[in-house]
Amino acid sequence: MTYSASGSKGISLRYLPKNHLFDIGGSSVFFMKDYQNVFYSMGFLNSKLVFYIINCLNPTVNIQPGDLKRVPFLIPEKNIEKIIDTLSKTNYSLIFKLNEYFIFEDSFKSSPISRFRNENEVKFRIRDFFNLENNYKSQILINEAIINEKIFEVYELTDADKAMVLAKEGESIGGLPVTAAAKKAYLENEVAEFPLDNIRYFIQNLPETAFSTEEKDKIVAEFPNLYQSNNDLEEFCIRHQVNPINVWYWFKESNIIPKQRMNTLAMEFLADMIREILLEDEDGIIPLVPNAGEKILLDRIEEKFLEKGFSMAQYSAFDGVLGRNIKEYLNGHFFKALSDHLNLFMYLPKTPFIWHLTSGPEQGFDCYSIIYKWDRDKLMRVRSVYIEHRERALVNRQSDLLNDTSASAQNEKDKIYKQLKEIESFKAKIDELLQEGYNPILDDGVGKNIAPLQKKGMLAYEVLNAGQLKKYLNADW
Length: 477
Fold this sequence. Notes:
It contains 22 helices and 3 strands. The chain has 477 residues and is an all-alpha fold. A 3-stranded antiparallel beta sheet has the order 1-3-2, with helices on both faces.
Protein backbone atom coordinates (compact mmCIF):
# COMPACT_ATOMS: atom_id res chain seq x y z
CA MET A 1 0.00 0.00 0.00
CA THR A 2 1.07 3.60 -0.49
CA TYR A 3 -0.03 6.94 0.94
CA SER A 4 0.79 10.61 0.50
CA ALA A 5 2.94 12.11 3.24
CA SER A 6 0.91 15.32 3.23
CA GLY A 7 -2.83 15.74 2.73
CA SER A 8 -5.47 18.14 4.00
CA LYS A 9 -7.89 15.23 4.65
CA GLY A 10 -5.35 13.16 6.55
CA ILE A 11 -4.00 9.77 5.56
CA SER A 12 -5.47 7.73 2.72
CA LEU A 13 -4.02 4.32 1.84
CA ARG A 14 -4.07 3.13 -1.78
CA TYR A 15 -3.21 -0.19 -3.37
CA LEU A 16 0.28 -0.21 -4.92
CA PRO A 17 0.57 -2.85 -7.67
CA LYS A 18 3.75 -4.83 -8.26
CA ASN A 19 6.65 -3.19 -10.12
CA HIS A 20 5.84 0.33 -8.87
CA LEU A 21 8.29 2.58 -7.02
CA PHE A 22 7.78 4.73 -3.94
CA ASP A 23 9.59 7.62 -2.28
CA ILE A 24 9.35 9.76 0.84
CA GLY A 25 6.54 11.88 -0.63
CA GLY A 26 4.55 8.71 -1.26
CA SER A 27 5.71 6.17 1.27
CA SER A 28 4.70 2.52 1.25
CA VAL A 29 3.55 0.01 3.86
CA PHE A 30 4.93 -3.53 3.85
CA PHE A 31 3.73 -6.55 5.79
CA MET A 32 4.90 -8.83 8.56
CA LYS A 33 5.91 -12.32 7.54
CA ASP A 34 3.03 -13.80 9.51
CA TYR A 35 0.35 -11.55 8.00
CA GLN A 36 0.09 -10.72 4.29
CA ASN A 37 -3.54 -9.69 3.65
CA VAL A 38 -3.20 -6.42 1.72
CA PHE A 39 -6.91 -5.72 1.25
CA TYR A 40 -7.90 -6.35 4.86
CA SER A 41 -5.06 -4.07 5.94
CA MET A 42 -6.13 -1.40 3.46
CA GLY A 43 -9.68 -1.50 4.85
CA PHE A 44 -8.29 -1.28 8.38
CA LEU A 45 -5.88 1.59 7.69
CA ASN A 46 -8.62 3.59 5.89
CA SER A 47 -11.07 3.16 8.78
CA LYS A 48 -12.34 5.89 11.06
CA LEU A 49 -10.67 4.24 14.06
CA VAL A 50 -7.23 4.46 12.45
CA PHE A 51 -7.84 8.05 11.31
CA TYR A 52 -8.69 8.88 14.93
CA ILE A 53 -5.60 7.11 16.32
CA ILE A 54 -3.22 8.74 13.81
CA ASN A 55 -4.69 12.16 14.53
CA CYS A 56 -3.99 11.54 18.23
CA LEU A 57 -0.41 10.51 17.46
CA ASN A 58 0.25 13.31 14.97
CA PRO A 59 -2.40 16.04 14.65
CA THR A 60 -0.78 17.61 11.55
CA VAL A 61 -1.23 17.11 7.80
CA ASN A 62 2.24 15.52 7.50
CA ILE A 63 1.99 11.83 8.38
CA GLN A 64 5.32 10.14 9.08
CA PRO A 65 6.12 6.42 8.63
CA GLY A 66 6.73 6.26 12.38
CA ASP A 67 3.13 7.37 13.03
CA LEU A 68 1.76 4.38 11.10
CA LYS A 69 4.16 2.02 12.86
CA ARG A 70 2.70 3.04 16.20
CA VAL A 71 -0.89 2.13 15.24
CA PRO A 72 -1.78 -1.06 17.13
CA PHE A 73 -2.51 -3.86 14.68
CA LEU A 74 -4.54 -6.92 15.63
CA ILE A 75 -4.88 -9.98 13.43
CA PRO A 76 -8.68 -10.34 13.18
CA GLU A 77 -10.86 -13.39 13.47
CA LYS A 78 -11.24 -15.19 10.16
CA ASN A 79 -14.92 -14.36 9.63
CA ILE A 80 -14.38 -10.61 10.11
CA GLU A 81 -11.19 -10.69 8.04
CA LYS A 82 -13.08 -12.28 5.16
CA ILE A 83 -15.86 -9.66 5.27
CA ILE A 84 -13.45 -6.70 5.30
CA ASP A 85 -11.17 -8.29 2.68
CA THR A 86 -14.15 -8.81 0.34
CA LEU A 87 -15.54 -5.28 0.80
CA SER A 88 -12.11 -3.71 0.40
CA LYS A 89 -11.47 -5.66 -2.83
CA THR A 90 -14.89 -4.61 -4.12
CA ASN A 91 -14.12 -0.95 -3.43
CA TYR A 92 -10.81 -1.25 -5.25
CA SER A 93 -12.58 -2.86 -8.22
CA LEU A 94 -15.33 -0.20 -8.26
CA ILE A 95 -12.79 2.63 -8.29
CA PHE A 96 -10.68 0.86 -10.93
CA LYS A 97 -13.81 0.45 -13.08
CA LEU A 98 -14.75 4.12 -12.75
CA ASN A 99 -11.20 5.13 -13.68
CA GLU A 100 -11.69 3.44 -17.05
CA TYR A 101 -13.83 6.45 -18.02
CA PHE A 102 -11.28 9.21 -17.28
CA ILE A 103 -8.57 10.09 -19.76
CA PHE A 104 -5.81 10.85 -17.24
CA GLU A 105 -6.05 7.44 -15.53
CA ASP A 106 -3.76 4.49 -16.37
CA SER A 107 -6.79 2.21 -16.72
CA PHE A 108 -8.62 4.56 -19.14
CA LYS A 109 -10.48 2.74 -21.92
CA SER A 110 -12.93 5.21 -23.41
CA SER A 111 -15.17 8.14 -22.60
CA PRO A 112 -18.68 7.61 -21.17
CA ILE A 113 -19.92 9.37 -24.31
CA SER A 114 -18.59 6.46 -26.36
CA ARG A 115 -19.54 3.64 -23.99
CA PHE A 116 -23.09 4.58 -22.99
CA ARG A 117 -25.31 3.83 -25.97
CA ASN A 118 -28.29 6.11 -25.42
CA GLU A 119 -29.76 6.70 -28.89
CA ASN A 120 -30.99 10.17 -28.04
CA GLU A 121 -28.87 13.26 -27.41
CA VAL A 122 -25.26 12.91 -26.30
CA LYS A 123 -26.04 14.63 -23.01
CA PHE A 124 -28.28 11.71 -22.06
CA ARG A 125 -25.30 9.36 -22.36
CA ILE A 126 -23.56 11.55 -19.79
CA ARG A 127 -26.66 11.49 -17.57
CA ASP A 128 -26.68 7.68 -17.70
CA PHE A 129 -23.01 7.64 -16.72
CA PHE A 130 -23.64 9.98 -13.77
CA ASN A 131 -26.36 7.65 -12.52
CA LEU A 132 -24.03 4.64 -12.75
CA GLU A 133 -21.19 6.56 -11.09
CA ASN A 134 -23.46 7.57 -8.20
CA ASN A 135 -24.55 3.94 -7.89
CA TYR A 136 -20.94 2.72 -7.68
CA LYS A 137 -19.85 5.43 -5.28
CA SER A 138 -22.86 4.76 -3.05
CA GLN A 139 -21.80 1.13 -2.86
CA ILE A 140 -18.24 2.21 -1.96
CA LEU A 141 -19.53 4.39 0.88
CA ILE A 142 -21.82 1.62 2.16
CA ASN A 143 -18.90 -0.82 2.12
CA GLU A 144 -16.82 1.68 4.09
CA ALA A 145 -19.59 2.01 6.67
CA ILE A 146 -19.62 -1.76 7.18
CA ILE A 147 -15.81 -1.88 7.37
CA ASN A 148 -15.85 0.82 10.08
CA GLU A 149 -18.32 -1.20 12.14
CA LYS A 150 -16.32 -4.39 11.74
CA ILE A 151 -13.08 -2.68 12.78
CA PHE A 152 -14.84 -1.47 15.93
CA GLU A 153 -15.69 -5.15 16.58
CA VAL A 154 -12.08 -6.27 16.06
CA TYR A 155 -10.91 -3.81 18.70
CA GLU A 156 -13.92 -4.45 20.96
CA LEU A 157 -14.71 -0.76 21.37
CA THR A 158 -17.38 0.14 23.87
CA ASP A 159 -20.29 2.34 22.86
CA ALA A 160 -18.58 5.23 24.64
CA ASP A 161 -15.35 4.61 22.69
CA LYS A 162 -17.22 4.47 19.39
CA ALA A 163 -19.08 7.68 20.22
CA MET A 164 -15.76 9.42 20.95
CA VAL A 165 -14.26 8.30 17.61
CA LEU A 166 -17.36 9.25 15.60
CA ALA A 167 -17.66 12.62 17.35
CA LYS A 168 -14.21 13.44 15.96
CA GLU A 169 -14.30 11.62 12.61
CA GLY A 170 -18.01 11.88 11.79
CA GLU A 171 -20.64 9.22 11.22
CA SER A 172 -20.21 6.82 8.29
CA ILE A 173 -22.56 8.37 5.73
CA GLY A 174 -23.24 4.93 4.24
CA GLY A 175 -24.93 4.02 7.51
CA LEU A 176 -27.21 7.07 7.73
CA PRO A 177 -31.00 6.67 7.46
CA VAL A 178 -32.51 6.27 4.02
CA THR A 179 -35.99 6.74 2.59
CA ALA A 180 -37.98 3.57 1.96
CA ALA A 181 -38.42 4.43 -1.73
CA ALA A 182 -34.69 5.04 -2.26
CA LYS A 183 -33.75 1.83 -0.44
CA LYS A 184 -36.18 -0.24 -2.53
CA ALA A 185 -35.01 1.35 -5.80
CA TYR A 186 -31.32 0.85 -5.01
CA LEU A 187 -31.80 -2.84 -4.22
CA GLU A 188 -33.76 -3.28 -7.44
CA ASN A 189 -31.14 -1.45 -9.57
CA GLU A 190 -28.33 -3.85 -8.84
CA VAL A 191 -25.49 -3.69 -11.39
CA ALA A 192 -24.68 -7.17 -12.69
CA GLU A 193 -20.91 -6.63 -12.53
CA PHE A 194 -21.06 -5.59 -8.86
CA PRO A 195 -23.89 -7.51 -7.15
CA LEU A 196 -25.07 -6.43 -3.71
CA ASP A 197 -24.94 -9.94 -2.22
CA ASN A 198 -22.44 -9.03 0.52
CA ILE A 199 -24.22 -5.84 1.59
CA ARG A 200 -27.89 -6.51 0.81
CA TYR A 201 -28.70 -7.36 4.44
CA PHE A 202 -26.98 -4.18 5.66
CA ILE A 203 -28.94 -2.01 3.20
CA GLN A 204 -32.22 -3.73 4.04
CA ASN A 205 -31.64 -2.96 7.71
CA LEU A 206 -30.64 0.67 7.32
CA PRO A 207 -32.91 2.88 9.46
CA GLU A 208 -35.62 4.52 7.39
CA THR A 209 -36.52 8.19 7.45
CA ALA A 210 -38.65 10.71 5.60
CA PHE A 211 -37.70 14.10 4.21
CA SER A 212 -40.03 17.05 3.90
CA THR A 213 -40.49 18.51 0.44
CA GLU A 214 -38.52 21.54 1.56
CA GLU A 215 -35.59 19.43 2.85
CA LYS A 216 -35.46 17.36 -0.32
CA ASP A 217 -35.74 20.39 -2.62
CA LYS A 218 -32.86 22.10 -0.80
CA ILE A 219 -30.60 19.12 -1.52
CA VAL A 220 -31.79 18.65 -5.12
CA ALA A 221 -31.21 22.37 -5.81
CA GLU A 222 -27.47 21.76 -5.32
CA PHE A 223 -27.22 18.88 -7.80
CA PRO A 224 -25.99 21.15 -10.63
CA ASN A 225 -22.84 21.72 -8.54
CA LEU A 226 -22.23 18.04 -7.82
CA TYR A 227 -18.74 16.85 -8.81
CA GLN A 228 -17.41 20.39 -9.23
CA SER A 229 -14.06 21.11 -7.56
CA ASN A 230 -13.96 19.01 -4.36
CA ASN A 231 -17.73 18.58 -4.22
CA ASP A 232 -17.82 14.84 -4.96
CA LEU A 233 -20.59 12.52 -3.79
CA GLU A 234 -18.94 11.86 -0.42
CA GLU A 235 -18.36 15.54 0.37
CA PHE A 236 -21.89 16.36 -0.79
CA CYS A 237 -23.39 13.70 1.52
CA ILE A 238 -21.25 14.76 4.47
CA ARG A 239 -22.27 18.38 4.08
CA HIS A 240 -25.97 17.52 3.93
CA GLN A 241 -25.72 14.54 6.32
CA VAL A 242 -27.64 12.38 3.89
CA ASN A 243 -27.16 8.76 2.85
CA PRO A 244 -25.66 8.45 -0.67
CA ILE A 245 -28.49 6.10 -1.65
CA ASN A 246 -30.91 9.01 -1.22
CA VAL A 247 -28.70 11.23 -3.39
CA TRP A 248 -28.43 8.52 -6.06
CA TYR A 249 -32.21 8.10 -6.09
CA TRP A 250 -33.11 11.81 -6.16
CA PHE A 251 -30.42 12.59 -8.72
CA LYS A 252 -31.77 9.88 -11.01
CA GLU A 253 -35.31 11.17 -10.57
CA SER A 254 -34.35 14.79 -11.21
CA ASN A 255 -32.68 14.24 -14.63
CA ILE A 256 -30.34 17.11 -13.73
CA ILE A 257 -27.02 17.07 -15.61
CA PRO A 258 -24.29 19.17 -13.90
CA LYS A 259 -23.23 21.49 -16.72
CA GLN A 260 -19.61 22.12 -15.78
CA ARG A 261 -18.83 18.42 -15.38
CA MET A 262 -20.69 17.63 -18.59
CA ASN A 263 -18.44 20.17 -20.39
CA THR A 264 -15.35 18.53 -18.86
CA LEU A 265 -16.40 15.04 -19.96
CA ALA A 266 -17.10 16.41 -23.45
CA MET A 267 -13.58 17.89 -23.51
CA GLU A 268 -12.08 14.52 -22.47
CA PHE A 269 -14.12 12.76 -25.17
CA LEU A 270 -12.90 15.28 -27.74
CA ALA A 271 -9.29 14.89 -26.53
CA ASP A 272 -9.50 11.13 -26.92
CA MET A 273 -10.98 11.49 -30.41
CA ILE A 274 -8.31 14.01 -31.47
CA ARG A 275 -5.61 11.71 -30.08
CA GLU A 276 -7.01 8.86 -32.16
CA ILE A 277 -7.10 11.02 -35.29
CA LEU A 278 -3.54 12.30 -34.76
CA LEU A 279 -2.19 8.79 -34.13
CA GLU A 280 -3.88 7.55 -37.31
CA ASP A 281 -2.36 10.44 -39.26
CA GLU A 282 0.96 9.64 -40.93
CA ASP A 283 2.98 12.41 -39.26
CA GLY A 284 0.72 13.33 -36.32
CA ILE A 285 0.27 16.92 -37.59
CA ILE A 286 -3.14 18.22 -38.65
CA PRO A 287 -3.87 21.83 -39.66
CA LEU A 288 -6.71 23.88 -38.23
CA VAL A 289 -6.63 26.26 -41.17
CA PRO A 290 -7.61 25.42 -44.79
CA ASN A 291 -5.27 25.09 -47.76
CA ALA A 292 -2.37 23.72 -45.71
CA GLY A 293 -1.96 20.50 -47.65
CA GLU A 294 -4.37 18.32 -45.66
CA LYS A 295 -7.98 18.12 -44.61
CA ILE A 296 -8.52 20.32 -41.55
CA LEU A 297 -9.09 18.84 -38.09
CA LEU A 298 -12.73 19.99 -37.83
CA ASP A 299 -13.69 17.99 -40.92
CA ARG A 300 -11.88 14.92 -39.63
CA ILE A 301 -13.67 15.15 -36.29
CA GLU A 302 -17.04 15.22 -38.04
CA GLU A 303 -16.04 12.12 -40.03
CA LYS A 304 -14.84 10.37 -36.87
CA PHE A 305 -18.16 11.09 -35.11
CA LEU A 306 -20.06 9.39 -37.93
CA GLU A 307 -17.53 6.54 -38.09
CA LYS A 308 -18.14 5.85 -34.39
CA GLY A 309 -21.87 5.48 -34.94
CA PHE A 310 -23.10 8.94 -33.94
CA SER A 311 -25.79 10.55 -36.05
CA MET A 312 -25.38 13.92 -37.74
CA ALA A 313 -27.96 15.31 -35.32
CA GLN A 314 -25.88 14.12 -32.36
CA TYR A 315 -22.77 15.72 -33.85
CA SER A 316 -24.64 18.98 -34.40
CA ALA A 317 -25.85 18.94 -30.78
CA PHE A 318 -22.33 18.35 -29.41
CA ASP A 319 -21.75 22.12 -29.14
CA GLY A 320 -24.33 22.21 -26.34
CA VAL A 321 -22.56 19.40 -24.46
CA LEU A 322 -19.16 21.02 -24.93
CA GLY A 323 -20.46 24.43 -23.89
CA ARG A 324 -19.06 26.17 -27.00
CA ASN A 325 -19.12 25.99 -30.78
CA ILE A 326 -16.71 23.17 -31.63
CA LYS A 327 -14.78 25.18 -34.26
CA GLU A 328 -14.33 28.09 -31.86
CA TYR A 329 -13.34 25.63 -29.11
CA LEU A 330 -10.66 23.95 -31.24
CA ASN A 331 -9.21 27.27 -32.37
CA GLY A 332 -9.17 29.08 -29.05
CA HIS A 333 -9.93 26.95 -25.99
CA PHE A 334 -9.14 23.24 -26.27
CA PHE A 335 -5.38 23.38 -25.71
CA LYS A 336 -5.74 25.48 -22.55
CA ALA A 337 -8.60 23.32 -21.25
CA LEU A 338 -6.64 20.09 -21.80
CA SER A 339 -3.45 21.54 -20.28
CA ASP A 340 -5.26 22.79 -17.18
CA HIS A 341 -7.14 19.50 -16.85
CA LEU A 342 -3.83 17.62 -16.88
CA ASN A 343 -2.34 19.76 -14.12
CA LEU A 344 -2.42 16.64 -11.94
CA PHE A 345 0.43 17.33 -9.54
CA MET A 346 0.88 20.58 -7.66
CA TYR A 347 4.65 20.92 -8.11
CA LEU A 348 4.99 19.38 -11.58
CA PRO A 349 4.20 20.95 -14.98
CA LYS A 350 0.99 20.42 -16.91
CA THR A 351 1.26 17.47 -19.26
CA PRO A 352 -0.80 17.98 -22.45
CA PHE A 353 -0.09 15.24 -25.00
CA ILE A 354 -1.74 17.27 -27.80
CA TRP A 355 -0.12 20.62 -28.69
CA HIS A 356 -1.59 23.62 -30.50
CA LEU A 357 1.09 25.40 -32.56
CA THR A 358 0.09 28.82 -33.88
CA SER A 359 1.63 31.69 -35.81
CA GLY A 360 -0.53 34.12 -33.81
CA PRO A 361 -3.99 35.69 -33.45
CA GLU A 362 -4.49 36.19 -37.21
CA GLN A 363 -4.28 32.41 -37.72
CA GLY A 364 -1.82 32.61 -40.56
CA PHE A 365 -1.03 29.03 -39.66
CA ASP A 366 -2.39 26.79 -36.89
CA CYS A 367 -2.06 23.07 -36.35
CA TYR A 368 -2.35 20.37 -33.71
CA SER A 369 0.43 17.86 -33.15
CA ILE A 370 0.80 14.91 -30.81
CA ILE A 371 3.83 14.39 -28.59
CA TYR A 372 4.06 10.67 -29.41
CA LYS A 373 5.06 11.48 -33.01
CA TRP A 374 6.78 14.82 -32.47
CA ASP A 375 10.47 15.17 -33.33
CA ARG A 376 12.89 17.46 -35.17
CA ASP A 377 11.83 16.13 -38.58
CA LYS A 378 8.17 16.91 -37.84
CA LEU A 379 9.03 20.51 -37.03
CA MET A 380 10.91 20.76 -40.34
CA ARG A 381 7.88 19.24 -42.05
CA VAL A 382 5.57 21.88 -40.52
CA ARG A 383 7.73 24.52 -42.21
CA SER A 384 8.50 22.84 -45.51
CA VAL A 385 5.13 21.25 -46.26
CA TYR A 386 2.22 22.65 -44.29
CA ILE A 387 3.26 26.28 -44.06
CA GLU A 388 4.41 26.33 -47.69
CA HIS A 389 1.02 25.04 -48.85
CA ARG A 390 -0.79 27.59 -46.68
CA GLU A 391 1.41 30.49 -47.75
CA ARG A 392 1.08 29.67 -51.44
CA ALA A 393 -2.71 29.50 -51.16
CA LEU A 394 -2.83 32.89 -49.40
CA VAL A 395 -0.58 34.50 -52.04
CA ASN A 396 -2.76 33.07 -54.84
CA ARG A 397 -5.88 34.42 -53.15
CA GLN A 398 -4.16 37.77 -52.78
CA SER A 399 -3.56 37.81 -56.55
CA ASP A 400 -7.19 36.92 -57.26
CA LEU A 401 -8.34 39.92 -55.21
CA LEU A 402 -5.84 42.37 -56.68
CA ASN A 403 -8.29 44.27 -58.88
CA ASP A 404 -11.33 43.89 -56.65
CA THR A 405 -12.06 47.24 -54.98
CA SER A 406 -15.12 46.20 -52.95
CA ALA A 407 -15.14 46.72 -49.18
CA SER A 408 -15.31 42.97 -48.50
CA ALA A 409 -12.35 42.35 -50.80
CA GLN A 410 -10.35 45.10 -49.10
CA ASN A 411 -11.04 43.55 -45.69
CA GLU A 412 -9.95 40.13 -46.96
CA LYS A 413 -6.78 41.60 -48.48
CA ASP A 414 -5.93 43.26 -45.16
CA LYS A 415 -6.51 39.97 -43.37
CA ILE A 416 -4.30 38.03 -45.81
CA TYR A 417 -1.53 40.65 -45.52
CA LYS A 418 -1.50 40.24 -41.73
CA GLN A 419 -1.57 36.44 -42.02
CA LEU A 420 1.40 36.42 -44.42
CA LYS A 421 3.40 38.70 -42.12
CA GLU A 422 2.56 36.42 -39.22
CA ILE A 423 3.68 33.35 -41.20
CA GLU A 424 7.02 35.01 -42.02
CA SER A 425 7.64 35.55 -38.32
CA PHE A 426 6.58 31.98 -37.52
CA LYS A 427 8.97 30.55 -40.14
CA ALA A 428 11.80 32.60 -38.65
CA LYS A 429 11.05 31.13 -35.20
CA ILE A 430 11.20 27.60 -36.61
CA ASP A 431 14.50 28.35 -38.34
CA GLU A 432 15.94 29.71 -35.09
CA LEU A 433 14.82 26.62 -33.18
CA LEU A 434 16.40 24.29 -35.71
CA GLN A 435 19.65 26.28 -35.74
CA GLU A 436 19.73 26.14 -31.94
CA GLY A 437 19.64 22.33 -32.14
CA TYR A 438 16.05 21.69 -31.02
CA ASN A 439 15.68 17.91 -31.05
CA PRO A 440 12.67 16.72 -28.99
CA ILE A 441 12.81 13.18 -27.59
CA LEU A 442 9.64 11.59 -26.20
CA ASP A 443 11.33 10.19 -23.09
CA ASP A 444 12.44 13.69 -22.05
CA GLY A 445 8.82 14.48 -21.21
CA VAL A 446 6.42 17.31 -21.95
CA GLY A 447 8.27 20.01 -19.98
CA LYS A 448 11.62 19.79 -21.75
CA ASN A 449 10.14 19.26 -25.23
CA ILE A 450 7.60 22.06 -25.08
CA ALA A 451 9.72 24.71 -23.31
CA PRO A 452 11.62 25.90 -26.46
CA LEU A 453 8.31 26.24 -28.36
CA GLN A 454 6.82 28.29 -25.54
CA LYS A 455 9.89 30.54 -25.31
CA LYS A 456 9.55 31.36 -29.02
CA GLY A 457 5.84 32.16 -28.58
CA MET A 458 4.72 29.33 -30.86
CA LEU A 459 2.02 27.88 -28.58
CA ALA A 460 -1.62 28.92 -28.29
CA TYR A 461 -1.30 28.74 -24.49
CA GLU A 462 1.63 28.95 -22.08
CA VAL A 463 1.81 25.50 -20.50
CA LEU A 464 4.75 26.20 -18.17
CA ASN A 465 4.96 28.93 -15.55
CA ALA A 466 8.05 31.17 -15.46
CA GLY A 467 9.97 28.97 -13.01
CA GLN A 468 9.18 25.78 -14.90
CA LEU A 469 10.11 27.37 -18.23
CA LYS A 470 13.55 28.39 -16.90
CA LYS A 471 14.09 24.94 -15.39
CA TYR A 472 13.23 22.98 -18.52
CA LEU A 473 15.11 25.27 -20.88
CA ASN A 474 18.23 24.49 -18.84
CA ALA A 475 17.51 20.78 -18.30
CA ASP A 476 20.49 18.68 -19.36
CA TRP A 477 18.98 15.18 -19.30
